Amino acid sequence: MGIIFYQLFLWLFAAGVRVASLFNTKARLWVRGRKDLLQKIRESCAGYSGPGTIWMHCASLGEFEQGRPVLEQLRIAHPGYRLVLTFFSPSGYEVRKNYTGADHVFYLPADSPAHARALLDSINPSLVIFVKYEFWYYYLGQIAKRRIPLLLISAIFRPGQPFFNWWGGLHRRMLQCFTHLFVQDAASAELLKNIVPADRISVAGDTRFDRVAAIAADAAPVPVVAAFCGESPVLVAGSTWPEDEQHLQTALQQHPQLKYVIAPHEIGAAHIEQVLQLFPGAVRYSVAEKEGVPANARVMIIDNIGMLSRLYQYGRYAYIGGGFGKGIHNILEAAVYGIPVFYGPAFEKFREARELRDTGAGIPLANGTALSEQLDILESNTALYAQLCHKAGTYVRENKGATGMILSFIQAKRLLTN
User: What is the pLDDT of residue 253?
Assistant: First the structure.
């Protein structure tokens, strides 16, 4: 019965995306990206004669950032292998389709028995790595049938997921396809122990810690932002949504000594214009890059994609958007620089946000007034501020190492032999 509902889900999802593509850009990219996709994959991968292929699949951009340190270390350790990277979502593929760390970057064809067989025939992987989640029944089944080593990395599980409910038999079968599961925490391992043998589960942590540490260690300067910041204390707000920006405006009015660098999640012309109206006198990054930074500007709006992780190096404080909506964005990109991190109330499902809160360096907020109050406390108590900075940096450093554990497992089990 489970497979019937799964097939119905696949059909309804595909039909819904096609309808949505008539008026939604992301859905349109999803549909267009899969046109003649298997033929493109077959042609692109033909003629390879190296020792083998490593295939990594990510749902979207966030999962790619988790998988990236593993992929890049595999490139170093096994330089002769071909690396194939796939994405389910346009949010990942469209940003990373030209990523030079992989030999090929593709959308993942929609899940079906025929597509699974065709994809695996084309890329013929020696090792498959799925990042965090993405459970596609036909792909996982075909990988297992061919006895290809299959790893799940940086995974996290919660009691409400299908695997742990009476109706989740199909999902439990999918878990059985994995050779090994690397989970983020002991709670996930405990949930899995009645489904997967204990020797196929490792608590490795989250590879994002390794990724953000590498970024921070090699963070290139952003001269225009550095010129804007000068010697002033700066709050860097990343991946903000309209409600976040309203709360930031409230706090800015109460703290004239602060400058803001705001990187909205959506950078379309309409939203950038809304942000500029909310912060009169703000300068756009693209304008400052051409014309210089106005002497009296207190707010800079980042109107491009790709530099957010480097912006936090200029912050005295960080604010992470999304917490007044579906959930916060990546807080580790900021915490790695050893600064207090503010975020909205929708953070409970994010382990790192809960743990950073417990240290005191992660500070949940109810509204813009709460942000202003917290800034008052930290600006007036330098010892407390220094303590929270130390805790933020220490938290990231102490949680590194997942990438090394995964690579050691691959080597010890001889999953790649050269």
Answer: 86
210, 219 Cβ separation under 8 angstroms: no
Residue found by looking up tokens 């790192």 in the block = 352
Give DSSP secondary structure letters for 272-283: HHHHHHHSTT-E
What was the pLDDT predicted at 305?
84
Per the CB < 8 A criterion, the answer to whether 412 and 149 are in contact is: no
Give the torsion through C-alpha atoms of 116, 122, 124, 127, to 10 deg: -60
CA distance 21 to 405: 41
- Convert the pLDDT of each residue in 322-332 to its tens digit: 999 989 999 99
Q: What is the DSSP letter of 52?
A: -
Per residue in 389-404, pLDDT tens?
999 999 999 999 999 9
pLDDT digits (tens, 9 = 90+) for 338-370: 999 999 999 998 999 999 999 999 999 988 899
In this structure, what are the phi and psi dihedrals at residue 127, rounded to the nearest 5 degrees? -150, 135
Mean pLDDT across the stretch 299-310?
A: 92
What ranges in 34-158 are assigned the alpha helix state H? Answer: 37-45, 61-77, 90-96, 113-123, 137-145
Q: Residue 334 and residue 318: Cα distance in Å, rounded?
A: 6
Q: What are phi and psi of 240, to 5 degrees?
A: -85, 150
Residues 258/232, Cβ–Cβ less than 8 Å: yes
pLDDT at res. 408? 97
Give the torsion sign (CA, 161, 162, 164, 167): positive
Alpha-carbon Rg for the chain, nearest whole angstrom, is 23
Spell 338-368 as b/e; 16+ CB within 10 A means b: bbbbbbbebbeebbbbeebbeeebbbbbebb
Strands 150-155 and 180-183: parallel
What are the two backbone dihedrals, phi and then psi, of residue 177, each rounded to the nearest 5 degrees?
A: -75, -20
Q: Indicate the helix (H) or strand (E) that contains 286.
A: helix 285-291
Angle, vertex CA 341, rays to CA 335 and CA 343, nearest 5: 130
Pairwise CA distance, residues 248 & 242, whole Å: 10
- Residue 369 sits at φ, ψ, to 5 deg, of -65, -40
**Which domains occur in the chain, in start order?**
21-205+401-412 (3.40.50.11720), 216-398 (3.40.50.2000)
Whether 248 contacts 282, CB under 8 Å: no
